[in-house]
Amino acid sequence: MRAVIGGVCASLAVLAAVLVMVASAESEAAPALPVVLAPHGAEPAIYAGPGERAQLNGLWRFRRDRDNTGLDKGFQTGRFGGELVRVPFVPDATRITGRRGIPIFRGMVGWYRTNLQVPADGSYALRFESINHRARVFLDGKEIARHKGEYLPFEARAFLKAGTRHKLVVRADWRSPTAMKRDGWHRLWFNFGGINRGVSIRRVGQSELLHPVMQTRLVGGAAQVALRIHVHNNAASRPLGARGTLTRGDRTVSFQFPAETIANEATEVLDASVTVDDPALWSPRTPNLWELAIEVPGEATYRARVGLREVRAKARAEGLRAIPLAVSGAFRSPQMAAAVEPFRTAIAAMQLNPPSAVVFSCATARPFTDPVNELADALVSPVRWRETMNALAAAGARAYVDVGPGTVLAKLAPRCVADAQVLTLHGVAPRLAA
User: Fold this and answer.
1) Tens of pLDDT along 350-384?
2) What is the DSSP string of 260-286?
3) Per the count of CB atoms within 10 A, which of 30, 54, 56, 392 is most buried?
4) Which CATH superfamily is domain 49-93+103-203 in?
5) What pTM, to 2 d.p., does this model score?
6) Nearest to residue 362, comparing CAs of 330, 385, 340, 396?
């Protein structure tokens, strides 16, 4: 009897071990939830960027709107037909000759729509790598983003629910090349209107990693690599740090970003440094690349392929002169793209009263006509200082007051308008006082 019981126990023990092993194997093999459900979900077309991204590579509908009547017809809700396409898609990206090119050069409005589903409730970011020229993004009939300028990526954020077929609609407007040029945009490829680069989607976690910067200095036979990353906190105020690796083949070099306390919905810049001995340097002949991976464990990741290289130029010997500018932020550049939509939303929530005088925008060199959108778009637009000064002079302005803490603008004004009468808060501008 003992032998039978012992045999049964042994069998149960073996069976338990097998069950544990199978369960463990299944647990390890269980794939993570996809970011978006089929038919979308391919690997991102652009490798570098935040983790948990997927390409919206499924079918879209495209509809031409030459008369610009789509908004009145409710196209923003997704109620329109059209040809089946995959983005990026440009309707007239072909060889154009003769009179047919005239209306195409003038541009038109185009509408895109697709359905998307996600496997889990949460906040998601839709990233558009390029839309030419003015873009409006709608989700389930509600506008969630506006943007201006092709080849300037931007994001639209929304809360998506699992089990719901969300309707994503994009209106692209690339009309009037003359107006674009006057606004500082030059359409060299006039027939590249519409969604002319890919669209991707990613989950937004409790934190985000954005805008990594890396600088390499060669010291002896080693590469001293300085790294910087923007960490955005979507949760309550807390200390947040990050860690990362540089990997090439079987070599991995680790580094750490010390934690800093980051308030809710705030962003801090974290710095790290690492020394890579005997680095495989990048060059045009041997373009060696390293895999850069950065993470806030369990919350956010970022990846890129980078080369280690230091380039030095003897500027003075070549007759060049460079002056480092101490600025507090990358204002008026594409690096500010992530702030455009939050800034637009904040301005839209304010009560803006009509000005008592004409106010010119230094981004368009024209009077403001749409302050909310023009102020938001100005974050990524260069300052058109000379054009603005000339426009003010053409409008009859002769006296200019520099209200800043210094006199830089007061000194610049006469370079654009020779007979300008320039004042500062402290009196007559220094150059004119002599």
Assistant:
1) 988 888 888 999 888 889 888 898 899 888 888 88
2) EEE-TTEEEEEEEEEEEES---B-SSS
3) 56
4) Galactose-binding domain-like (2.60.120.260)
5) 0.69
6) 385
